[in-house]
Amino acid sequence: MIHDTPGLIEAVRDRFAHVDRCPFQGERIFFENAGGALTLKKVVETSGFYAAIPDNPGRANPAGQGIQDVIDRAKADLAVFMNASTGQFFAGESGTELLFRMIRTACVNAPEGAKVIGSSIEHPASRSAARRWAEVAGLRYVEVPHDDATGMVTAEAYAERMTPDVAVATIVHASPVTGMGMEVAAISAAIRAVAPEAVIIVDGIQHAAHGQLDLDSYGVDGYSISPYKVFSRHGFGIGWISDRLSRMPHERLIGSPEDAWEMGTRDAGSYATVSDVVAYFDWLGGEVSDETDRRRRIEAAGRAIRAYETHLTDAMINGTGNLPGLRDMDHVSILGGADNPAREGLVSVVVSGVPSAEVVERLNAQGIRTHIRKDDHYSGNVLKPLGLSDCIRISMCHYNTEAEVTRLLTALREMGEG
User: Fold this and answer.
1) Could you tell me which residue ranges the Aminotransferase class V domain spans (predicted)?
2) Which of 260, 364, 386, 417 is most exposed, with the fewest beta carbons within 10 Å of its own?
């Protein structure tokens, strides 16, 4: 585990920019990773290098060919990182934009009168796209309700609402509100057991930073991530699509290959930073295992990240040292339950008697960065059924520490004493 290996957490933190200080605020603890993770220092360096190059990828000159090699290498790196032996990777405006494009293409190519199925726990990125394009294409949208108590949706819940005429399905890999991860492979299998030809598209934006990506095992047709939530930077999204979805009629330039999905000149620097991220997972896997195969090192990194983040969330919920955990604070309620093995580095809470906006403000004044989730178009689907107008989201990554958790617990405990 990361915290059991001497010097490893220090080495991890040293690879990230602004790990304990904000250039606007000064010293701070970063528990807002679900809103955007910290950026690798190497990514910052790489971005600056490629931002200064004027050449276009693929042109018949050394720079153009070199840049194209960078893009090709990044796509190959993504195939290893996400374990995709088929299909293609491509870049777009954002993870959300790519979900819209994939879902739109699937819907407009669906048989007349077919159904689109998705769940109530999904981020509006996929829910909005599915509802919008189901309506445009004359399809019926079917919503699978999530379990309010656990903050999850299960394969069994999908199976209960599946019918053979489902042509498009959406799944969220992890909820950015509850922090719970879904069993994508099991949900996909439940969908295909009834509608084997359904096009299945996954929102992996919240899950990706926590490791354990395995596209070959999911049996899906589309998967989207936002690299700024996986230690890269803002300004682009990465999508993977199956060979089948690649060839479906979609927006492309007249005369271009039928499987062309990238529109316009791509930023080689964004692709290059993806390779930096994959190299980081590879390095971490080598630190926590003796694996020599690159994919197996990445898998080891994912397991270590999962174990360490579980350690951090357990410390936050159950307490550490002499400090009581969130479950022992009478003024704190935990969304999704205190004992939930599906949790991925995120704990959302409500503090009794203190408005969530004030909690976030008071924590921020102590140098602890968290975020409010409101009953709005982003989080209302989760909060409304719980009777909540808002909550505080505390989201961690594997570069956070138990000492930082201790400071948070101290601050939250004091809010119940005043």
Assistant:
1) 29-248, 324-408
2) 417
